[in-house]
Every structure is written in C-alpha cells, then in structure tokens.
Amino acid sequence: MLFSLTVYAVCPSVANANTIRVKSHVTGKIGFTKNHRLEVTGTVTDNFGNPLFGVRVSIKETGTSVSTDKNGKYKISAVEGDILIFTLNGYLVKEVEANQALLNISLGESQKRQATTPVLYGEQSVTTNLQSTSTVYNNDLIKVPVAGINNALSGRLAGLYTLQSSGRPGADGTSITVRGNTPLVLVNGVPRDYSSIDPEEIESVTILKDGLSTVMLGQQSSNSVVMITTRKGEVGKQRISLTAQAGLQSAIKLPQPLGAFDYATLYNEALANDGKAPRFSAADLNAWANGSDPVFHPDVDWYGTILKPNTVFSRYNLNTYGGGNSTRYFLDVDYLNQSGILKQDDQNTYSTNTDYKRYLVRTNIDIDITPTTLLNLNLFGRIQSGNQPGGAGANTAIFTTGTTLSNFGGNNIFAQLAATPNNAYPVFNPNGSLAGSSDYQTNLWGATTRSGYFYNSTRDVSADISLRKTLDNVTKGLWVKALASFNTSVSENIIRTKQYAVYKLAGTNPDVYQKFGVDGQQINLSTNSGQSRNLFVDFSAGLDKTYGNHSINALLKYNSQSAQTANQIPMIFSNLSGRVDYNYKEKYLAEVALSYSGLNRYEEGNRFGFFYGFGLGWNIAKEDFLKDTKWLNALKVRANYAYTGNANAGYFAYKQYYVTGASYNYGTTPTAITGTIEGTLANPKITWEKANQYNLGIDATLFNNKLSIAADYFNNENFDLIQTRGRSSALLGTAYPAENIGISRYSGVEFDLKYSNNVGNFNYYIAPNVFSLQKIIQYQDEIDRPYPWMARTGQREDQTFGYIADGLFQNQAEINAGAKIQGYSPVPGDIKYKDLNNDGIINELDIQSLKNNNPIWFYGLNLGFSYKGFDFSALLQGVQNRYIYVSGSTEWAFQNNGLGQAFEQNLGRWTPATAAVATQPRLTIGSNPNNEVTSSYWLHDGSYVRLKNIELGYTLPKPLTNKLKLASIRFFVNAVNAVTLSGYDRVDPEVYGNGYPLQRVVNAGLNVKF
Amino acid sequence: MIVLKGCLWQPSPLKTNYKQMKIKIKEIVGVLAITIIGFSACKKPLYETEPTSQDITYVFDKTDSLGIQAKTFLADIYSYLPNGYNRIGNDVLDAASDDAISSSPASTIEYFVNGRISAVATVDNSWDNNYRTIRKANIFLANIDVVPLNQKGLKVYWKSEARILRAIAYFELIKRFGGVPLLGDRVLGLDDNIQLPRNTYAECLKYVVDECDALKAIARPDNTLAADEDYGRVTQGVALALKARILLYDASPLNNPTNDLTKWASAAQAAKDVMNLNIFSLTTAYTSVFNTRKNSEVILAYQRAVTFDLETRNAPVGYTATNASGAGYTSPTQELVDAFDMSNGRAISDPASGYNAADPYTGRDPRFYRTIFHNNAKWLNRIIQTYDGGLDRPGSAVNVQTRTGYYMRKFLNETFESASVYSNQTHNFPIFRYAEILLNYAEAMNEAADNAVNRTEAFNQLKTLRLRAGIAIGSTVGYQHGLKATMTQAEMREAIRHERRVEMAFEEQRFWDIRRWKIAGTVLNGTLHGMQIIKNANGSFSYTQTNALNVSFDASKMYRYPIAASEVNKNRNLTQNPGW
Questions:
Q1: Which chain B residue has its CA at the smallest distance from A278's CA?
Q2: What is the pLDDT of residue A417?
Q3: Is the model's pLDDT at A970 over the cut of 70?
Q4: Any bridge partners for residue A658, and if so which?
Q5: Residue B13 confidence (pLDDT) above 60
Q6: DSSP E strand boundaries for B238-318
Q7: Which residue of A has its CA nearest to B81?
Q8: From the list B105, B132, B231, which residue is nearest A733 (CB)?
Q9: Each residue of A650-667: pLDDT tens digit?
Q10: Which of A27, B205, B236, B452 is in the most buried spot, having the most CB atoms within 10 Å?
Q11: What's the confidence (pLDDT) of residue A26?
C-alpha cells in the first residue's frame, strides 16, 4: 500500500492524464455517444503553414477516413473523444483527440519515403529501378554541425565510407570512398569538385554504386558517383526558414606527454640502456619533482600552453522558396565560422588562429517560358577563407609550406608539439623574451603567436543554365534539353609571416643570453595559389512512354566537360551516351545503358572507348500469386552487369616531354645553366582502366511499407589498372611510366534496412546499414620474391608488409637461442621477430603482410523518434577489421636523436622488473634499428564505433507560434563525434599520430519558419 | 563552344570508330554527330590541345644554330658528376673510412663500418643515378646531330663531353660493383629487353679505357679552355686523368691479385701522359686548390654555385649565429690526426720529430691546420673549444657534436678564420687534380719495378708535394722533407700511401684506397679513436686518447658493394656480388 501510494505521489500527472483520458473515452463510448457526435473540420498544413493536399484523416476506432482537399481542408464525422489519425507520405503521423469542431493540424516532415529515387541524369520509380543506389535527404544532412558535406554522410549510406584524417577547420581532410573507390561528384548532373557546401541547399545526396548506374559516364564510370541535387522552388507562397546555431568544439583527445620528471627519469633509463652516463642528475630530477626551478628546470605542458580547450562553431542560414504559376525560386544564404584551436596573443592586432569562415549563396530559379519550355538557372557563389600562423621559418606557414588550405606540410604544429619535451625550455625567459636553446630553436608559443600569419582565400562561382522543352506535340513523353554550366575558382594567399629569435639564459647571471635565430622582417606577399575553370555542356533528349503493358523510358545524351587547372591544357571529356528502361506491367524489368566516351589525354585515334551495361529485374510481388499477400508490399530481385572505364591517364603521358632538370655552374664566374632532362618516359599505349562490374540485389518492403530492405552483392573486376611495372630495372636510366597492368577484384555485400512505425503520436524509425568491402590484388607485375609470404598478388590492396613480432626478448638465453638479426645485437627488452624462412637470420625474407588499415566491415545505425513537439535522432557509425599502425615521434620516446618527447604509453616500457607486463620494448635514445622497423608489434585494433551524431529538437506548439505570427519555431541541440569507443583509445582511431585533433562539436540552435 | 573546339569530335576518328558499332547505334551517333559537328565547326583550335613546346624537337632544335637548348641537356648531365661534400645523409664518404666518423650516432654512413650494410640497406647506392647519366649521354649523342651548330668543332667537343661523362659514370659503377651491364650507345625503350646481364670487370675496364683513348685527342684541349664561360667542362685532360685513375685501380691488389706488373707500368704511363701535357701544375698554396675557382691544379672539379653551406655543415657546433653557424657533421679520427707529420716532415712517432703529446697540435704539417678543426684553433674570431663541456663539445647527451674532439676543416674558406659571418665563396669539389696524378704516378712507378730508378721517380713526386705543403727539405743527412732519402720498395709504398692520405683527406680517395689496397680489413676492424680533452683550472689542457667507435669490415664481401636487392629482384639476369 505504501509502495503504490509512493508511486502515485511521484507521478501524479501521469496518473491524472491516464485517468482523464480513460474517463472521457469511457464516457464517450457508453453514455453519450449520440449526443457527442462532432463534425470535425480544419486545415492540415506543413510546418510553414502551407496546406497539405491528400492527407488521410482516419478515425482510429472505426477506420473511417477522408482526404484533405487542395486547400488542406477536411471534414469528418466523429464522436467526441475519438482519435483522429493524420497520415501523409513523407510526414510524421499525428494522432489527435477529437474534442472540438475545429481542428487545425500541422504535420512535421519525416524521413521521406519517395516514390521515385534519383538516378544519373534523372529519376526512376522505386518500383522499377534496377540500379544499386542509396539516397540521404536534407532533413538528415542538416542535423550535423560540420563544414564539409562528406562528414555529414558518414554512416548514413551503405557502401559509403568516410575517413577523417584531420580536424582542422576548413581542411577537414575527409576522404570519401564508395565501394572502395573515390567517387566522382556531380552537382545537379554537372561534375564538380565540391565537398564544402552547406547542407541546407541540398535536397538529396545519392550514391550511384554499381556499373549500370554510372556507365553513361563512360571514361569516368568505374568509380561510383556521389550525386548532389540542390533544392528547388515550389509553387506556393513564400516560405522562409531561418536557422541560427552555435556550438563548442573541443578536441576528442590529445596525446598525453610525460611530465618533465617522468621524462627525465625515463631518459636516464634509456641512456643507461645505451650504455651511457645519465644526463640528468638527482638534483635535476628533484627540481622537476617539486617544480622549484621553472627557469632552468621547466616543465611546460605544451598542449595546454598553445591549445584552447574549447573553440566556437557558428552557422547562420536563411533560405526561402516559393513560386507562382510560371516562376519558382529557391534562395539560400549561409555563413559558417569555425574558430581554430590555437591560443592567441592579445598584443597582436591580427588573428594567428586556424580560423575558417565560409559565405555561401545559391539561387535556383525555374521559369516556364512557354507551357512546354522550362528555363532553369542555378547560381552558386562561395567565399572561403582560412588563416594560420606563419610558423617558424621565413616564408612558411604552420601547416603549409606555401599553397592551399588543404595542404598539410611537415611544418605541422602538431608534429612540433609531439616533438617537444616538457623540459625543453620554458615559454618565456625571466626578462620576458621567448625561450629556446640550440636544440629547440622553435619556441612553440612563438611559432603560434609571433610568426605573423598566413591567410588563404578561395572564391568560387558557378552557373548552370538549362532549357528543357517537352515535345508532346511530336509524340507524347518526348523532351529535349540543353544545359551549359561554367564554374571558376581562384585561390590566393596573403603571406604576412615573420621570424623571431629565441634566447637561452646562459648561466645564473640574469643578463647573459645566448640568441638563436633572428627577429626577421615581416614578409608581405600575395600570391595566386591556384585557379581552375570548368565548362560543361550537355544536350539530351528523352522519351517516357507507355504502350499498354509496355513502358519505355529512354534517354540520349551528349556532353562535354572541359576542366582546366592553373595553366595546364584543359582536360576534355566527350561523351555520347544513352539509356533505355523497359518494363512489362512493372513486373519484368530491363535496362540497357551505353556510352561512347573520349578523353583528350590519350593519343589521337585511341581516345574513345565504348562502355555498356544492362540489367534485368523481376518484381515478384506484382505477380498474381503474391498479390493478396498483405504483409508483402514489394519484392524485387535485380541483376546487372556493366563494362566501365576510368580515365587515369596523367598529363598527356603518351607523349615524350622534356622538362627542367638540375642546373650546373660553368665558368670562372659561376653562371647556373638550368638543365633539361627527359621527363617520365612516354607510354604511347596508355589507355583507360576498365572494369567488369556485377551487381545482384533484392529490394523489399513489408508490413504496410513499415519495413524496407535492400540487399546487394557486388563483384567488380578492375583491370588494365595504371601501375608501374615491378620489373622496373634501373638499367633503363629513367623513371618508368604508368602502364595498364594491374588486375584487382573488389567485392562486398550491402544491407540497408529501415523500419518506421508509430505508436500513437510516437513516431519512430530505426535504420541500420551494414556493408563489407574486400579489395584483392589479382595480378601485378611482381618482382622476384623467393617466398610465398612475400607475394603481393592475392593480398589486399594498400597492404603494409613487415616483420611479425613475437613478443619481447626476456633474457639473454632467449636471444642466444633465437634467430640473429642482421647488423644488430639485441638485448633483453628488444622486440623478437619470427624467422619465417627458418634460416637463422631475420632479414627482408621474413617480411610478410600485416593486418590492414582499411576496414572490411562497416556499419551505421540511424534511429530516431518524434513525440508531440519533440524529435530525436541518433547516428552510430563504426568499422570492423581495421588496424592502425602507430609509429614515429608520437609513439616512440626520444626520437630525433634524443630530442623528442615521450608519452604516457612509454611508461609501459620493458624493464627487467616489468618484463612480464611490458607493453613497449626497452627505451633507447634516438631511433632503434630493431624495434622501430615496420612490424606487427605496432599494430593496434583500429575498429571503432562512434556516436557520430545525436540531436534533440523541440517545436513549439502551433497555437503559440500562431500568436507570434510565425509558422514554426524549433529549438535543437545536437552533437558530432559525441562518444567514441575504439580498440585504439590513445588518441583517436581516425586522427592519430600528429594530426590536427578531431573535434567534438556540441551545438545548439533555433530554427524559425515564416 | 570552346569545349568542342577541342576537336574530339572531328569527323575522322568518329567515322573510323562508329563503323565498328552496331547499326542502330550508328544511326543515333550519326544524327547526333551532325548536330555536334555543326556546333563545333572545327578550325584551328584557340590554343594547343596537347603540349607541343616541350618535345624532343624543342631540345634538339633544327633551327638552333647556337645549340642553346641542347646545351641545357648537357648541363643536366654534368650536374650528376660526383659531388663529394656531405652527400650521404649529411656525411662525407670518408666518414666511412678510418679517417673520420659521423658526428651523428644514427647516421646511415655508419652502415659501412657497423655491418648493417646489405643488399637491402644500401648506402651510397649510385647505381640508378649513373645509369641515368648513361641514358642521358646516349640521348644526347643520338640527337645532337640535328642541331646545326655554327661554331666549328663545337659538336665534336660536346659529343666528347657526353662520352667522357658517360665513361666517368661507368667508372663510378665499376669501382663500387665490379662489372656492370654495358649499354653502348643504346637508349633503351619500354619494349626492349631490360633484363640485361653484367659484363665482366675486364670488359667494363676495356670500355672505359678505350673511350678515354678515343677521346684524349678529340675532346676539347685544356689549353684552349680560355673562354671563361666554358671553364669546368670536361677536356682531354679529364680523359687522361680518368684513364690514369682507372688503370691505377686496375693494377691495385683488389683487381690485380697476381700482381701483374705490366698493369702498374700501364698505370704509370697513363699518369705520365697527364704530366706530359705540361698544362697542369701544383698551385703555390695548398688551400687555393679548394678555394679558387680556376687554378692550375684542378683537372676537373664539380662546379658549384658560390655558397657557404660547407661551413654551416661542417664548422664546430658551438657557432650558432645566423650565417655564422656550424652543424659539425664530420668527426675526424685520431688516426687521421696522427697521420699528419710534424712540420719538419717527421712522423710523430719519430723521436726526432719534436712531437709533444701534451701539446699535440703544435708544429704539425701545415696541411693539418687546413684539414682539421682542433681544440684551441681559431674560427670566426673565436677559439674553438672541443674540450669536454666547451662550446663545441657541450656534452649533453643529445647534440650532434664531435665524437672525437675534432671537426673537419678541409674545403672551408680560410678567410672565415677571422671573419664574423660567412659570405658566399667557391667550393668546387675536386674530382681530378694534379696532386693525385703525381701520387698515382709515384705509386705505379714504385710498384712497377723494384729498382732505384723507379723509386727515385716516385720520391721526386713526394718531394714536390711536401715542398708545396710547406715541409722544408731540411738539413738532416739521409732525410729529405722528413722522409728517408733511401727507401725500400715497401717503405716507399708506405710513404706514398701516407702522403695520399694526408694530401687528399676527405676527397673521396681514402675510402677507395683502403679497398683497392685491400687494407680495409685491417684498418677498419677494431676501434677508431678520438681525443678527450679536459680543460684544467689553470687553463691548460689534458689529452687522453679515447675510443670513438668500434668498427668492423667483412673482408669476405665488403670490398665490393652489394647490388641493391630491389635491382636484383627486378632483373633475373643480374648476378649479385659474392657474399651478399
């Protein structure tokens, strides 16, 4: 009794709500049925307040239903207390109790399930599509507060894998692959090299995975396609959406360097291991232990000294669309500001941070010039700017040595951080000057704040104009279209870097300093660091026709792309292509696609290739024997094959060129004569890479379309791959050219599942995807390898080879018994390697393939719900069978001849006392030729799962927003990279070593619709 | 429609290709092609559609009567001549001999002396670069004839230059590997058989000697090299000097196990041929060989731009100011230091030399002070401190600093001794110089016959060199320039080897000499030494010889380099050297 009372007390509202509801229900049903019949009317709108047509309004209890008219109006006869269900494809289901005569309802958009799916140069009915494609829509993309679209795609599409190797603003370094290849990016059907684009302007991103879906691209058809479709105007009154959001970014994890005391202790140990006298005395160690002498015994946490714990991310977006009978428009303006991780010196009048700012504008306009003629104009403009400190040198930048934002130089500040021990030097000297020493002449604080800055700005403009005419008067369903597209990009650097000197207090006399480096003049340079132009023209004609049970959809196309980078001769693709889809009663499906495609980078007469693909499918669910199976809505099996191409020709590699060589100084007054040399040997036979691509798939939807399944198996044989021959003897006297040599097989499976349903107003969905990828070398021109384990053929592509570690030598007896290491005398604590050929010597014959950095299994899990005004979504992303090879100054202690840093993991080194539990070999100064060769010892499990994206939103109730004269107001909080679980937890499984750390972004914002 | 101007859709390729297609496609293509050709109206394109300005006709230009472009092709070949300064990592090659060690404990040059060298871990592997030179020379020879040079005789000179450079490239290969594949004048193509076997050492030797013989008369004569801008090109003298060196190497124990005396006689004659030109002579001052761009002694030097990179690489590490710094990459050994005689010409082991172990750097052969930075010497207006804890040997466990108490001074410009900063100066690397010819001659004469006549000839060369070095003839009876006036053949051999070591230290001679004499197995097995110097309270110094580096040399295989495993694995017909 007491127990139940407590419950009652804790949850009074719940209890009340139930009580009341039950009561009214019961009352309605029993007592006052006839008296409380209601004629409910109202308008159903979307979040903008626009009427929705065709919304099914049904009464839960009886199943009676009506649909809304063009103005969103409905009228239904109900009993007070009935539950009305509002459903419309693409919108969240809403249940409302009929308690008044006027019920105006607004429906939120859900994960759209479309009747059509984007395909190359068009759309295809989901029912008849034979290609392997996956699509993600705007509403998922806008949840992710990141700059690049690549990062928003992670984990959402089966077959697509992203790897982010840097967290640097504006240079996120996210690589994207689809079925193991770097895809071609098309924006509205035009090849574009854009990944930095704002998600609000995107309607959908589709990946075209199999050969049939891409073969019309001819020489660019082997590598899959990421197809971005931007939003368009819609008929209706103007709709405005304004979003403001701001977040905090922080590094997921930073390397953990040792404090000065630990560092010095280990240093002495390493010296002892090398048979040398200790470098640090007991007094030194004591000074670090108690921190009593910060001048001569500094202990500087460099990461904390120059890096901010948090930085700011903000984005503002305004987009509006609408249209009348003849004109429709979409306009999007976006501003993004991502600040960098470096601390700033207030004395500077300028920023020396790694900031990134981006301004974007897009307008898409459709005009019906005549009832059959549609003019479409898309304009896109982007300004991006990035900044960074100048770094240590005279004309360098902290990340780059000169050109663009995306360029990571060896000068990387994180490499310097990883190479600077805590006791190297204090930040400042007692007299306020920057400290340093002959060994450490780059004061890190100086590098980040006293070295001027390096500013890069990139400007892009693109314009597409197209004219489409339907020729129904000739034959119904016929149309023609012409499109021209131009884009140009210019990038410039403003270099204001300068040098700074560092000083070392020479002795105890506070006035005597030794100077290193110079206080240099500021460089004032402005350079053009890159430009490109791209012209694309496209003519197409199509026919969409049904003759009785036969439906035909045909497309014929010619296009040409001229891409020019800097002062190179343009790369010109020319492509004549066509596609025919046929189906019989939507039951039996067939498709053929062809392309005759050329590129001007091959020798004249050998520039064009013919590519083709075909597919067959069977919609089993349409067969009579399954027609009455209620739980099965659709079931389709499909198979296709395509012969595709990949132009990978280099720059006119068929022709022999002569290039600038080394210079020589003849003469009593030396005058350099710049030499000329033969360039890379010409290969007149060079041609495009080819592939035979096979794809098998099943699509099914079940249980009243609540569950949809897509499964694919692909097996692609890539051949004539561009490689340098293995038997490239130096006797030739020049570099070997790329030749069409290799054969590789890419294969894998993909599963896409989605289940969505509602329990009352609780709409939810769960959408997992899983896929696999194996890239196996079938043939390459191998050099002679005496043992099978050395062979590359049969191994995975990008395979690392190394020794197989067999633990650490524990004692001299074990060393004496083991195989000898060429040119090295191991001692206990060194890594022991397996002697694969049992010849008693560890050498290059004992090298075999190591576990691979590329995962085999990939998965994503997208789930979410909405309830009343709340919506929630989460995305988990992960990979399996991935291994990370760690090496270099962030892994090993005292690199760079002993100048390097040491890290937490180095505490796990082998010592006689810790022999059994050691996780690292014994310490040595500088590089150790035995322990630091490539071996399996340094492999870590790189599988991971991330809570990549999570979002919670709340939309204010309609009556409230109506009062404010707004269509809707939604608050949201979201996060990127919220939680990461990985076998490699030292830093991050994607950005390890000395990259710019991956950022966790926690973000909040507000969206207002008018 | 600029795109279509690219002329990809010219009628010709289209016609030829669409014939092969099926009829239906043909029709479709035809209809579209007409449309497109209408658009394109292909005339001459607005800009080049493939790069045409950089093909071979631009290098070997039929209209280039001055050969301006062809000359640049030759210039590139020159740039691959041996350039001996700090070229392996940061080390000089002789840091792998008994003369020096690297100041850096992790240097790859140490592979030569710590046994790590192998077909996989190669150092100084010049295989690729020399075959590049050979290819370039062959391209030059195959194409130069189309260039209508209007200067009479220039084409013959240029062809001779290409051939001598090619011969030098073969010599560089032969001295490392023994016999190598000979390509003749062939320029190999992708479809040629590149799996070539090695020619024998004798065939390779004959090839180089024959080339030298063929070119010694037709190459550019040295005394006509008046035109300043041509200074530094290879000449008749270079052909002769190359022949003199390769024949000396051929007569040496490594390549002459039966001690065929006619080989020594040929070598002596080849050296004499250079001397008989009467063009080259020793410079008056020893250092002007290295610091003057044009001088009477250098037969061929690698012509470098004026720089001070040698100083910043090799000067002691205590110098840190901008444009006045030193990285101290090379640590000469005590063995080399001890090889320098006293200024009276007597070896320090000779009680009559006046050597004082407590003051070891006083009164030495003047060449010592031009070759070695020692404690208490002067540089950049400061006294060098290589004593323990001194500025130039600070002793922290981490610095790259001298491991022997010495730094390399040779080739550095002596004017910086009392300068405050460096300035750009000439540092040409001597490939062939007259002093070597004299030493070659002396050695070959002494070996060719065990008689007094030959020994006198040999002795005369040593005297010439020692006189120039600043060692006076002296008045001690039975001694001239500190050497015994009458020596046995064996004593003379030692005197010549000793003179070679001192005179040509760090010139990439000692490294090869200890190999061809087959003494590396002796001098490179054991310990190389340095000097620990303690500064006493009264300012005086105490000297203790210390162990600097334990070295080993496997005489069973290391007299020849291993051919890189990567190369052997690519070419089934290429046999590896024995033992590797």
A1: B397
A2: 87
A3: yes
A4: A678
A5: no
A6: 298-302
A7: A664
A8: B132
A9: 888 888 989 899 999 988
A10: B236
A11: 38
Residue A14 confidence (pLDDT) above 70: no
Question: Which residues is A824 bridged to in the sheet?
Answer: A821
The single residue listed with the structure tokens 């008689």 is B451
**What integer pLDDT is reported at residue A393 of this predicted model?**
62
Q: Which of A279, A654, A660, A676 to mutate to test the interface with B (most CBs of B within 10 A)?
A: A676
Contact (CB<8Å) A600/B6: yes
Q: How many residues does chain B have?
A: 580
Q: Inter-chain contact B571–A727, Cβ cutoff 8 Å? A: yes
Size of interface A-B (CB pairs under 8 A): 247
Q: What is the pLDDT of residue A500?
A: 86
Interface touch B32/A604, C-beta < 8 Å: no
Taking only the tens place, the pLDDT of each residue in A870-926 is 889 999 999 998 998 888 888 898 888 888 899 999 999 999 998 889 999 999 988
Q: Do the Cβ atoms of A823 and B118 come within 8 Å?
A: yes
Distance of alpha carbon B525 from alpha carbon B519, whole angstroms: 10
Angle of helix B434-448 versus helix B236-251 axis, rounded to 10: 40
| Contacts with A576 from chain B: Cβ below 8 Å | 29, 32
Looking up tokens 């065709």 gives: A54
Percent of chain B that is helix, strand, coil (3-state, to 5): 45, 10, 45
CA separation for the pair A649, B196 (Å, rounded): 30
β-strand pairing of A841-842 with A820-821: parallel
Q: For residues A774 and A748, what is the distance between their CA atoms, to the nearest angstrom?
A: 6
Three-class DSSP category at B315: coil
Residue of B nearest to A577 (CA): B29
B-chain residues near A678 (CB < 8 A): 135-136, 139
Question: Confidence band (pLDDT; 50, 70, 90) for A839?
Answer: confident
Q: What is the mean pLDDT of residues B177-185?
A: 94
Interface mutation vs chain B, best among A562, A732, A825, A901, most B CBs within 10 Å: A732
Residues 6 or more apart whose Cβ sits within 8 Å of residue A196: A147, A148, A149, A170, A358, A382, A384
Tokens of A229: 């479709």
pLDDT in the model for residue B125: 85
Tokens linked to A748: 């894998």
> How much is the ipTM here?
0.86
With cut-offs at 50, 70 and 90, classify the pLDDT of residue A20: very low
Look up tokens 């404010």; give the residue.
A964
Q: What's this model's pTM, rounded to 2 decimal places?
A: 0.81
Question: What residues of chain B lie within 8 A of the CB of A512, using their CB?
Answer: none
Q: Which residues pair with A561 in a beta bridge?
A: A536, A573
Answer whether A438 sits within 8 Å of B317, measured CB to CB: yes
- Residues 6 or more apart whose CB falls under 8 angstroms from that of A290 comprise none
Residue of B nearest to A562 (CA): B3
Say what the pLDDT of residue A554 is.
93
Out of A276, A670, A926, the one facing B303 most closely (by C-beta) is: A670
Three-state SS for B26? Answer: helix
Distance CA A775, CA A795 (A): 8
E strand or H helix at B142: helix B127-143
Closest Cα to residue A40, out of A97, A88, A90, A91? A97
φ, ψ at A388 (rounded to 5°): -160, 160
Question: Chain B residues with CB inside 8 Å of A674's CB?
Answer: 72, 75
Confidence of residue A400 (pLDDT cuts 50, 70, 90): low
Q: Say what the pLDDT of residue A410 is.
A: 43
Reported confidence tier of residue B265, pLDDT bands at 50, 70, 90: very high
- Residue A42 pLDDT more than 90? no
The answer to whether the Cβ–Cβ distance between B79 and A663 falls below 8 Å is yes
Decide if A569 and B48 are in contact by the 8 Å CB cutoff.
Answer: yes
Please provide the distance, in angstroms rounded to a whole number, between the alpha carbons at the two ends of chain A. Answer: 53
Across the interface, whether the CB atoms of B6 and A652 are under 8 A apart is answered: no
